[in-house]
Design brief:
Keywords: Lectin. The protein is mainly beta and 126 residues long. It is built from no helices and eleven strands.
Length: 126
């Protein structure tokens, strides 16, 4: 298991057909956690996808960051995560955008797309 926070290079980038599987354990005292698909390694890099389950407000927020500014938040239905429990999230890149789903509970959360995949060559996930 990786330390948190964790940042990894995705050397092949992301293109339609890419599937990212993220597994973890929600800490018992967590109120929120996030996964970002970044367009670069630098501090403040644009984020093509910000996936942010908020257990404290019972919602999942999706967003993007472009030229240093966050966009309008979009909310998915409910939070399929529980404190102290393992989770798995699939992020599937398609021509329509990122499909985010939680396969352990067969939950589809959102299709999200704002930044073109061409911006995601050699990008980072944290």
């Amino acid at each position: 298991m990786q330390n948190i926070p964790h940042k990894s290079l995705l050397p092949e980038g992301i293109r339609p057909g890419t599937v990212l599987r993220i597994r973890g354990l929600v800490p018992p005292n967590a109120s929120r956690f996030h996964v970002n698909l970044l367009c670069g390694e630098e501090q403040g890099s644009d984020a093509a996808l910000h996936f942010n389950p908020r257990l404290d407000t019972s919602e999942v927020v999706f967003n993007s960051k472009e030229q240093g500014s966050w966009g309008r938040e979009e909310r998915g239905p409910g939070v399929p995560f529980q404190r102290g429990q393992p989770f798995e999230v699939l992020i599937i890149a398609s021509d329509d955008g990122f499909k985010v789903c939680e396969p352990l509970r067969s939950t589809h959360m959102c299709i999200f797309y704002r930044l073109p995949f061409g911006r995601l060559r050699g990008n980072w996930i944290n």
